[in-house]
Structure formats: C-alpha cells, structure tokens
Amino acid sequence: MVGYSHNTCYFLSMIKKEQNLVIVLVRPKGASNVGSIARAMTHFGLTELRVVSPICDVKDIKAHSMAMAGQEILKRSSHYATLKDAIMDCNLTIATSRRIGRKRLPSLSLRDDAQKIYRSILLKKVAIVFGQEDKGLFKEEMELCQEHLVIPARPQSESYNLSQAVLLILWEIFMSNPKDFEKPENIDNQREVETVASRKEIEDLLEQILEVSIKIGFVPYYEPKRVTNTFRKMINRVEPTSREVRTMRGMIKQVNSKFLDKETE
What we know:
Strand order of the largest sheet: 3-2-1-6-4-7-5
CATH topology of the largest domain: Alpha/beta knot
Radius of gyration: 28 Å
Strand content: 5-15%
Number of strands: 7
Largest sheet: 7 strands, parallel
CATH superfamily of the largest domain: SPOUT methyltransferase, trefoil knot domain
CATH architecture of the largest domain: 3-Layer(aba) Sandwich
Number of helices: 12
Shape: elongated
Helix content: 40-55%
Number of domains: 2
Distance between the termini: 79 Å
C-alpha cells in the first residue's frame, strides 16, 4: 500500500470536496456575471460549472475579462438544455432564491446549516442551483431540488447580484470548516520570516533619524537617548519589514542630502 504524507492526505481530501460540489446556473443573462462566478469558484478550489440554457454567451470576452484565474472553469463549463439534465448525477440539489413566499419557504438557513451542507459535500455529489438574474428559478425547477436556500437581506432591499450570491453562499459553507483555509502544518512561512527587519536594520534607521533630528534642532543635545528610545518603541510596535526600513532610510537620506547638507555648506 502506498503511504501518503500528512500534506498529501490534506490535499487529497480537498480535491474530494472540490469534485463533489458543482455550481449550476440556469438561464444566466450576464456574461460578466458568469465570469465573476468562475473567478469566485477558484477561491474555494471548485472546478465544475454547469450552465442551463444560457441567454448570454458564457465564453464572451466580457466573461473572460471577469474570470481572471477562472479561465479554465469557463472553458470546461458544461451546457444543458434543462435543469433536470444538469443534475441527473447529483445526490443533493439545493435551490437558491431571492424570494420568500408561501410555496418558497426555505428549508435551509445559510448561517445555521452551512456546516450541514459542508458535511454533505464530503459524502455526496451536491449541486447548488442559481436562477436567472431577474426571474430566478421557475416553480417546476424549484420542485426538482430537495432543499431551498435564501440569503438573508434587509427588508425591501434589492436582491443580491448573481455573482455576489454565489460568493456569499460558498464563503459561508467553506468557512463553517475554517481548516480548509489553513496551510498544512509542515509548510513554513519562510517569506514572512525573511522580510521582517533585523535589529541591526532598525538600529541603523534610528541612528539616521537621530542624525537628522539633531540637524533640524528637534533633539536637544542633552536628550538624544530619550528621543531615540521614543522612536525605538514606536518602530518596535510597527514591526516593519526590511523593505519598509530601506524605504524610510532612503527618504531620510534624500531629505538630508537635498536640504540639510546644503544648509551646512
């Protein structure tokens, strides 16, 4: 039996979830919206976008310009004539709606049931279905779905933009298990460690600040240590990076050479 490292198992489990969740768009009108949805999917590792009878050209330049890293999702998106065709291989189908009515009562709460949906993704093929921007899903399409989900909004407010709705729902589902967004424990954050300014870099900066402060008369000759300690405490709280320290030193050097050195000539 082939053994896998902790990191490998982590990523294999992520791939399983990615493959189990599909986004279905029914009669989308805006190519830009479709592109934005493809982009949103990349943030959660999703790859499968299904489109039912689109009114727009989902591979239009507007879609591609909004998709950014989601170009492959657009390219590989599958098209269907009806919602029923699009969800035939799914074990759980969740309809989304902007309206709450007598026949459209939600069966799931986005915030309360996000983890329930997440657990379903681990075991089943799950489709989240979004309707046309201005008309939503038809009654017969709603009836094809086992669950009904509404994103809460202020009374009398407009419905969410389609791509915003997709992003909000995916965010809630995956943030119900925040570990999906944590790095594997064996990965070092070397870049962050290397960019923090060293003690020497900070002390050199302080010497430069003190030199200029004395030249402009800001530091009395008998209090340089006290003023230096004040700046040191402030800089220590900020924890600047090496690049930030170099930028400050470059600016001070320019001020010194352009204005102060000329005054002493």
